[in-house]
Amino acid sequence: MPSATDPLIDELRALLGTEAVRDRAIDRHAAAHDASHYLLLPRAVVVAEDAEAVARVLAAANDAGTPIAFRSGGTSLSGQASADGVQIDTRRAFRRIVIEDDGALVRVQPGATVRQVNARLARHGRKLGPDPASEIACTIGGVVANNSSGMSCGTEQNTYRTIASMTMVLADGTTLDTAVPDADARLRAARPALHDALAGLRDRVRADAASVATIRRLFAIKNTIGYGVNAFLDFDDPVDILAHLLVGSEGTLGFVAEAVFRTVPAHPRVATALLVFPSLRKATEALPSLVATGPAAIELMDAASLRVARTTPDPAGGIAALEVAEHAALLVEYQEPDEEALRARIADADTLLPALSLTLPATFSSNAATRAGLWQIRKGLYTTIAGARPSGTTALLEDVAVPVERLADTCTALTALFDAHGYVGSVIFGHAKDGNIHFMITDRFDTVEGRTRLAAFTDDMVDLVLAQGGVLKAEHGTGRAMAPFVRRQYGDELYAVMQELKRACDPRGILNPGVLLTDDDEAHLRDIKVPVPVEEEVDRCVECGYCEPVCPSRDLTLTPRQRIVVRRAAEQARAAGDTALAAELDDSYRYDGVETCAVDGMCQTACPVLINTGDLVRRLRAERAKAPAATVWNAAAGHWGTMTRTAATALSVAKATPAPLVTIANTAARAVLGADTLPLWSEDLPGGGTRRGSVAVSTPAGEADAVYLPSCQSAMFGPAGEGPGLQRSFQDLCAQAGVRLHVPDGIDALCCGTPWSSKGYRPGKQRMQDRVVAAVVAASREGAIPVVCDASSCTEGFLGLLRDAPSAEPLQIVDGVAFLRDRVLPALGDLPRAASITVHPTCSSTHLGSTPALLALAGAVAEEVHVPDAWGCCAFAGDRGMLHPELTASATAAEAAEVREIDAELHASCNRACELGMSRAAERPYRGIVEVLAAAASR
């Protein structure tokens, strides 16, 4: 436990504020885990708001001699983002993206993900040069710190080659923008000893012919081991040398608070194919001829990788039927500026293919879905394999590079090493055209036997790669995994240069000690993470962090990865007999882990092993539910019509009552019943809605074209503004198109089940499921006509409710926006259009795949359709946004700011709760897209 009187923590709180410095057990354990196989527990976590805050922390830590590590996306794989000192969180506040020179340049802060940056650049036909496979979650901070490359960029478009300038913060807090004309003079004035040292090291390296030859050879291929000492040859001014040394320095020389990149063209015409060969050697032998055709990417997968890929849902490329023996595959992609150039590339490739002895026919495809399926085979390998590892084992992913002509021999020898050291099921994959391969092993490293085997394997692997003229780290960074071997890679002279560089930049050695350089020959064997089995729903989590950017609570409490690792930490504490720590973690977890989870399932859309952390949270809510609340909610399932009318009446009464009186009463009741039990009323909530049965326009089931299940949200919440509301609007639109709807009898008592499933009240959900199944099966004539719901979250809820009922198997459940697009919109003709509309897709429309339909409806009513780049789940989540409004405020902050900046004429979504949440957050009136469409159709 951290000391309550820790002088440095007290100083940091005085400098930055209490909220910025976090040393609760749950904060420290949540932050300790990243995608690597190392685990160190930080002393405290500091959430820095800007470069000045980082400078203050560094100055204080430098004075105290306290180690510092930087953490942003947490996707690094070699242990470079873990430390037992103070961890600075540079993810939450450092997300600014500024497009410059029509996309030729982009100015980015370290907390923005590669995907977010490329989404902005796409409008200009540009993208970042580095293209790591983890682009969904890896951030610019890590991209710069690791000198990231990726699938296509090779050595010419990596971070080192495409960075134009940066704002750096050095170990003593000195801040410098290298783009200013007199940057070198400013560095000399602020840090004269450092400036002199850089100039001296430059001259020393250039004067040594052996050093120059070594640098030229090692940096001719992908190389991220040690410091980027090629900067001493590529640049003259110390400030430019330092900037490029910071690239790939893994937080050991300073912090990059902002980077300006030269972007590269994002070619719009793309074609991809999977080439399957009878053996790994045949695949690697084909590389020279394939490389000559000019592909953007060639990805290698060995036989073990293909066996894993065959186990994934609907594998592409024909491999599902392949009986994998010694096979290997190359995923080849061409990217070109126009169709003519692409056809020429494909023609060259097609001429070559017959000579390659392929096991399966190969065809280059430009179809987006086909290409996505092919890339999913490659991109999902690491997490799929790691997710299927035996319980209690750790997955280690390493990467190396060798000259391409030595790739086949290296892969063959590496496979032999796996067998020699007893690593079963190890895989090899990677960027074949660059000679860059990744390999993964799994084992128990909490035993002496496991660590001994790892030590012996690593020594043999190092010998192998160096003998092939290769590098021990190609793109994942040195970290802790390869730090003991940097001297062997470069030799004594260049290693001494690196040591002197480190001393000059960081005299007190506070920046990420033990990373990249170390005197400990066994550093790579220490502090290895041992996953602890906790719950079936999440045990396959590999802690990759891909879920974090889409999580609505990421800036308030915990992310899905953190929810899982805190459970693991608590279980580990219990196993170790540390009941006090376990109790503290459990107590904090109630709010941080359970109450502020939106259970929206967006984490599953990003998770490569398809974990929905909401499933865990729902179960925990069920286990922790207070008996009175559970009793009331379970009973409500039998009287749902009465419950919705009661809620609607309460909202109407509250709307008609002076707000201060309602607020006083509501606040007092929440104090008694609990903030997670009674919603918080606010003036922006509407009055109550109308009973669904009273406004239903229903055709007899035998004559209807569809069964219509209006959402009970529109019965509880009245419409926005003076409109007729969602149900009437949907019915009117269908009537205009001649589509006949049947509303089941007793509709007021039906619900999609989400109120019970989200809270973990299983008896209530089962009771509602029985009623809904009986009603809907009969109304749809046992699936003869589709069943449509007008709110996306309710459509998703009905799908979940009916999925487990055998009698509901023939039912076709259709989201309302998709139904209107396909069955109604064509009959409406041209509609009057507003100038612009901003649309908020929902997490449910994402799960259902109905967001394109939502946007099609928006395009029918407005000339310009905007979806904010910062779009994400609003976390209103039924009543969650009223129980914990701080959750929605946090989740929507970035999107709301963008919405206000766009300032469109109309604002719409496809779920009433989301419309309430976005109206509150953005201070703009959001309406249901169905209502907006109906209003346009009525004019």
Quickly describe the structure.
The protein is an alpha/beta fold.
Topology of this structure?
Blueprint: H1 7-16, E1 21-22, H2 25-32, E2 44-47, H3 51-64, E3 68-71, E4 86-89, E5 97-100, E6 105-108, H4 114-122, E7 126-127, H5 140-145, H6 159-162, E8 163-169, E9 175-177, H7 183-190, H8 192-207, H9 209-218, H10 231-234, H11 238-246, E10 255-262, E11 264-265, E12 269-277, H12 280-285, H13 287-291, E13 297-301, H14 303-310, E14 328-336, H15 339-352, H16 368-379, H17 381-387, E15 394-401, H18 407-420, E16 427-431, E17 436-443, H19 448-467, H20 486-490, H21 492-505, H22 560-575, H23 579-595, H24 602-606, H25 613-624, H26 627-636, H27 640-656, H28 659-673, H29 692-695, E18 706-709, H30 713-716, H31 726-736, E19 741-742, H32 754-757, H33 762-779, E20 787-789, H34 792-803, E21 813-815, H35 816-828, E22 834-839, H36 843-848, H37 851-861, E23 862-866, H38 880-883, H39 885-902, E24 906-909, H40 912-922, E25 927-928, H41 929-937
Parallel strand pairs: 2-4, 3-4, 18-19, 18-20, 20-21, 22-23, 22-24, 24-25
Antiparallel strand pairs: 1-2, 5-6, 6-10, 7-11, 8-9, 8-10, 12-14, 13-14, 13-16, 15-17, 16-17
